Amino acid sequence: MRDDAVGLCLTCRWARTITNRRGSTFFRCGRADTDPRFARYPALPMLTCIGYEEGRPGDPTGSGEKGEVV
Ligand code: SF4
Prior knowledge:
Strand content: 5-15%
Bound molecules: iron/sulfur cluster
Order of helices and strands: EE
Distance between the termini: 13 Å
Number of helices: 0
């Protein structure tokens, strides 16, 4: 998936990536677990988001390299 097809979720620490057996990657929003304002699977590309926090996706500390998706 191209970076510009993902938008903010690509560099948001709340993003969780899920890859299926066919190799397709989906972005799940970790904020959706506790806040109903967020969609569990946000429509991409995410261009603006009130919950965005820069960090490594899936990293609860918010640290890590920008843009790295694991
Ligand atoms: S908080 Fe917003 S930018 Fe971050 S993962 Fe959820 S939908 Fe994407």
